Amino acid sequence: MTWLITGGAGYIGAHVVRAMTEAGERTVVYDDLSTGIAERVPADVPLVRGSTLDRERVARTLAEHAVTGVVHLAAKKQIGESVQRPLHYYRENVEGLRVLLEAVTETEAASSFVFSSSAAVYGMPDVDLVTEETPCAPLSPYGETKLAGEWLVRATGRATGLSTASLRYFNVAGAAAPELADVGVFNLVPMVFERLTQNASPRIFGDDYPTPDGTCVRDYIHVVDLAEAHVAAAHALQTSPGHDLTLNIGRGEGVSVREMVDRVNAVTGYDRPPTVSPRRPGDAARVVAAADRITTRLGWKARYDVQDMITSAWEGWVRLHPEAARA
Ligand SMILES: O=c1ccn([C@@H]2O[C@H](COP(=O)(O)OP(=O)(O)O[C@H]3O[C@H](CO)[C@@H](O)[C@H](O)[C@H]3O)[C@@H](O)[C@H]2O)c(=O)[nH]1
């Protein structure tokens, strides 16, 4: 098989390329490099610079590299920005996917399609553990585009025989190697790194939630585990065609914001107590996966814990900001 990895120069995509390669699969990266970084793509993996909105370029790439499967990660992923620019998000995430699926099905090249979805499809779930059957009620245009993407992928699979999987990522953190670390500062772990290294107190957005310590609870998943889940899904689609899978990718373990901040303080050695800011609009008190479906269906299970995530993310941060390291 040759797998087209769209968004393969991004933080998660580069980890998927690495995991697929380690599993012996051939990969081709397709990325517009708007946020992706070319250096993340290994020298022996072809990198095609292009948008998934460019049907001709997608079709040519599928043919030239004899692509037989697709893992589609290329997307815009900032929730706040999606509220400001919904048309942009719908164009990039929904129309980009539609054009890609059109090219894939018309050329009849690929038989398997893995779609990068998100726990954002659930919105504010009112359950202890979110199963794949928990009703979806996204709160942002970003979450809406992911849910619409799942519908598009499933409907196309049903109509054409394409085997499909939608993977709903929970909170992704960590890195396989410092040079693959997330360079964005949009999520809790890098935001705490930034505050600490600027000699500011980490911020906790709200400590009056109905949770054990009053702060929001999330399900953090190491990006290496997440990447391996893509390999497991890709293999399942390849070996038993006709699949139509929707799977949570989490560890099934809730960790509070306060616990995360304490752990980041311990790993970095900064030890600066957090301050409590007002709640951030749109945050759910608790979003934790029921993570057993993927184990049952694909035999995948997370191997890394929160400590591994923070330690590896910190190594990446120090590589980019050497002055951040404590003596
Ligand atoms: O400086 C900070 C940064 C974040 N938080 C809190 O930390 C938690 C996690 O926040 P964040 O890392 O921004 O993740 P989420 O808002 O849970 O959303 C992430 O996880 C979702 C899946 O669950 C994805 O869809 C989103 O793209 C991804 O940003 C939330 O309660 C935030 O309020 C703080 O208290 N202080």
From TrEMBL:
* EC category name: isomerase
Q: Name one GO molecular function term.
A: UDP-glucose 4-epimerase activity
Q: Which family does it belong to?
A: Belongs to the NAD(P)-dependent epimerase/dehydratase family.
**Where do the TM regions start and end?**
none
EC annotation from Swiss-Prot or TrEMBL? 5.1.3.2
Q: Which cofactor does it need?
A: NAD(+)
> Pathway, according to UniProt?
Carbohydrate metabolism; galactose metabolism
Tell me where in this chain the Ketoreductase domain is found. Answer: 1-133
Q: What protein name applies here? A: UDP-glucose 4-epimerase
Q: Which UniProt keywords apply?
A: Carbohydrate metabolism, Isomerase, NAD
Reaction(s) this enzyme catalyzes, per UniProt? UDP-alpha-D-glucose = UDP-alpha-D-galactose
Give the species this sequence originates from.
Streptomyces antibioticus
Matching Pfam families: Epimerase
- Domain of life the protein comes from: Bacteria
Gene Ontology biological process terms from the UniProt entry: galactose catabolic process via UDP-galactose, Leloir pathway
Q: Which NCBIfam families match?
A: galE (TIGR01179)
